[in-house]
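Lecture notes, unit on binding sites. The following record was shown on slide 14. It pairs a sequence with iron/sulfur cluster.
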Amino acid sequence: MTLGLREFHPFEAAGRRYLYLVPSAAVFALDDCSEAILHELRGGPQPLAHLTTTLTGRFDALEVTDTIAELQRVRALAEVTGRPPAPMPKIVPLRPVPLQTLVVNVTNQCNLACTYCYEYGEDKIVDTTNGLQPKFMSEETARDSVEFALRESRENTHAHITFFGGETLMNFPVLKSTIAYARRRAAEVGKEIDFSLTTNATLLQPDVIEFLATERVGVTISIDGPEEMQDKFRVFNNGQGSYAMAAPKIKALLQRHRTRPVGARVTLTRQTLDVKRIYDHLTHELGFWEVGFAPVTTAPGRDYAIADAGFDHLLEQFRALAADYLEASLQNRHHGFSNVRETLQEIHQGHAKAYPCGAGIGLMGVSTDGRVALCHRFAGSDDHGLGTVKDGVSWEKQQAFLDTHHIANKTDCATCWARPICAGGCYHEANTRYGTTQSPNLHYCDWIRGWTHTCLEIYGELAARNPGFLAQFDDEPTEKIS
Ligand code: SF4
Ligand code: SF4
């Protein structure tokens, strides 16, 4: 038998060498013997007998044999047969997958006019201004959405609804009555249900805050940082910035809403890339528990789009903040940089993703007229529709989507070591950049690989120096909303 190396990405942490094994998405710590075996094979495949003889002088024969078997088991080594390598396996679900999160767009209206907004800005894919879609979801459609979420959660005992917009709180009356209805219906069918929403915070009146706190609604605030950064793009129709109105309301919310941690979600643009300053302001000065950052989704050429050099700068900034996260985590202190937490969770759970996110599978979005699409960003788009909350979704359409969007179809990703985590990236971003959801997001590969490498290093440090910290990542996450 001749053995050769398979796909892995090496990294070092805490003075040890590790492999991130691409076929199995597992992290493997190397010892001297496994490292020596990999070193021997770096020049090309070798017959097993030759490999064993070469290393037996340095290591015990049994140790060499056992280590080779272990490396084969974790798929770091494989038999070289001379035949062309097998194509990436394409395994798609054979029956409907339970819905974990339904994102309900209760309105497509907004009291802000953020320049970069994917719903209203220059890159929108659904025209919500043509009067064909209701501006506000009716109580009846919201109730149908609840029934849909409970039904489609199938054998799961838990359902989750996220309210979204437009500006979600512009339809607070429907949101409020829907939560009451959903709690009653969930109890009747013997399920648990919980709720979250995303808001720009400008409509957080005292009665709204009271409701969110007592109903334990998870809240994410869209905010871009301190006043000068927030007011660059997050503006009212008359161009006036929104910070002065949002900040006191956020403080009031954070003071009252203690039942669930409140997070901030930041859109990064070419002009607002100071990650550390934004993080410090949002956590230390405003008091957010967690902050997540996402580069703006836009076609290239917009003056707020992040260009190549911007991604390098962004990576540096992320790395600096990630170092703070590591330091805090080694001492079991909380740090709220949620991008690290989410990637560590993915590494820890070791899923080799066939799809970048749950869109169209565990996550779906509903438009104000009750149409169901891949996710909230496609809500109302006929091209990306799956059905309606009233009549249900078409499993044939879902299957066709899963078939055409599987990572095995993305030939550019076939040799990329980061594919178990990235799987080609956001469909909405791909649609905006390349005009099709099927395209991988090749404009940010260096950034994804650089960031994944950093998170692997953090994972390795924690595994070696504070392994108990990683136990928190054992649970399955709820689908995140970006
Ligand atoms: S989009 Fe780029 S980084 Fe992501 S899996 Fe494909 S090749 Fe890798
Ligand atoms: S990553 Fe993109 S496609 Fe997936 S749920 Fe988020 S916005 Fe939708």
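Take-home: The two ends are 48 Å apart (CA to CA).
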